[in-house]
Automatic annotation (TrEMBL):
Its cofactor is Fe cation. GO terms for molecular function: 2 iron, 2 sulfur cluster binding; dioxygenase activity; iron ion binding. PANTHER family: CHOLINE MONOOXYGENASE, CHLOROPLASTIC (PTHR43756). It comes from the Bacteria. It comes from Cupriavidus lacunae. Belongs to the bacterial ring-hydroxylating dioxygenase alpha subunit family. This is Aromatic ring-hydroxylating dioxygenase subunit alpha. Residues 43-149 form the Rieske domain.
Length: 413
């Protein structure tokens, strides 16, 4: 797509170590470029395997003007298609989720099987070739139960590198053997990049997230050492070393992997939880009595996994929380949060949904407000890019650098 000279200049002149210029958060033209350069060309995390536990189960996801249909086929494989009939383009599945035997167009009843093949199309004549009118497939990858799609004709090839690095970290939590205990969608009146920037730092956590910081060490995501906190930071570092040795002995990797500037950027690390914590709850104890996978021990810390451009996830011994960010416009963003527990856990017996979701419900609402404050500020004539903290906002800089790099690649800057 063509871009104006002003946008090209903004991309070329971006100052490293500083927040982005205001148009990156406000401009609908830049938003359209984001959708083309980022959300149509990269691996986007959109669902989890338990969203479609049985053959015929489906979910739909909207990425810009494209509706994506994710369905489990009869061979238990997860497939993805454009949610568009090959007859006259009607949307096939109009609910957020559901179950079908076959995929039937509501307009003229063209019928597709779960592999996307056109099986039935009445009144099309003897010369009509059904094989030429199958559903258009979308690239899909299943990373240890996290579902990614890519709309590009040729998706980034380095997904395999992320899979090789991350499967040893994620597979012990056995996400595929969980169920979605709760899902909450939050509409933030802010640009998607502000949502992601807010997630990539915990500079704001102590002042804004009292529920989250019950179980999270404040030193865990970057901190400037000082005489006042030196003792606490040293104690935290010792705890990390001791717990990492325990986890490695249990075949639970914990070491940081950071590849945030790769095309398919990602980062992971397992850190201990505070107060001898077991889980991200209001009392730092497990939210579900039924532990995941083959775990027999509750205090296994918190495994965090971030992906560029749109997701982050927290894996604990008893439950998993996944976050997927979907841009809606320059000033609106959908944040979809799912809480996963063991598929055999019983609500009211093994877990209580209110307790399970309390920390991140509160945190999401607090973050929504912060993103909206930032969106308002970006619209002020007084706004200018401000410096990132080298101690606590390094991951924000890496997100911004990754983002600008993708735009530069798109426009040939």
């Amino acid at each position: 797509m063509k871009v104006s000279a002003d946008i090209r200049a903004l991309v070329e002149q971006r100052k490293a170590g500083y927040s982005l210029e205001a148009p990156f958060y406000l401009s609908e033209e830049i938003f359209a470029l984001d959708m083309e350069a980022i959300f149509r060309k990269h691996w986007i995390q959109v669902a989890v395997e338990p969203d479609v536990p049985e053959p015929g189960d489906y979910v739909t996801v909207e990425l810009g003007h494209d509706s994506i249909l994710i369905v489990r086929d009869d061979d238990m494989q997860v497939r993805a298609f454009h949610n568009v009939c090959r007859h006259r383009g009607a949307r096939l599945c109009n609910a957020d989720k559901g179950t079908v035997g076959n995929i039937v167009c509501p307009y003229h009843s063209w019928t597709y099987n779960l592999n996307g093949d056109l099986m039935f199309a009445e009144h099309m004549g003897e010369k009509f070739d059904r094989c030429k009118h199958s559903l258009k497939s979308v690239h899909v990858e299943n990373l240890a139960g996290l579902i990614f799609v890519c709309l590009a004709d040729e998706p980034p090839a380095d997904f395999a590198a992320m899979r090789a690095a991350m499967e040893p970290y994620l597979l012990p939590h056995n996400l595929a053997d969980t169920k979605v205990a709760a899902q909450i969608d939050v509409l933030e009146k802010g640009n998607w990049k502000l949502t992601m920037e807010n997630n990539r730092e915990c500079y704001h956590c102590v002042a804004n997230h009292p529920e989250l910081t019950i179980s999270l060490y404040e030193y865990g995501f970057g901190y400037q050492r000082s005489p006042a906190n030196a003792e606490g930071m040293e104690a935290f570092e010792r705890t990390c070393i001791e717990r990492a040795a325990e986890w490695e002995a249990m075949s639970l990797p914990s070491a940081e992997i950071e590849q945030l500037l790769d095309t398919t950027g990602f980062r992971t690390q397992r850190l201990p939880l505070d107060r001898s914590g077991e889980s991200q709850t209001l009392d730092a104890r497990v939210a579900s009595k039924k532990l995941l996978g083959k775990f027999e021990q509750a205090d296994l810390g918190g495994l965090s996994f971030w992906t560029q451009p749109n997701s982050w996830h927290h894996f604990m011994s008893d439950h998993i929380v996944t976050f997927s960010v979907i841009p809606l416009s320059a000033g609106e963003t959908l944040v979809r949060t799912k809480w996963l527990v063991h598929k055999d856990a019983q609500e009211g017996v093994d877990y209580d949904v209110k307790n399970l979701t309390a920390v991140w419900n509160a945190t999401n609402d607090q973050d929504r407000a912060l993103v909206e404050y930032s969106q308002c500020g970006a619209g002020s004539s007084a706004y200018e890019p401000g410096p990132y903290s080298p101690f606590t906002e390094g991951l924000v800089e890496k997100f911004s650098a990754w983002y600008i790099g993708r735009l530069a690649e798109q426009i040939g800057a």
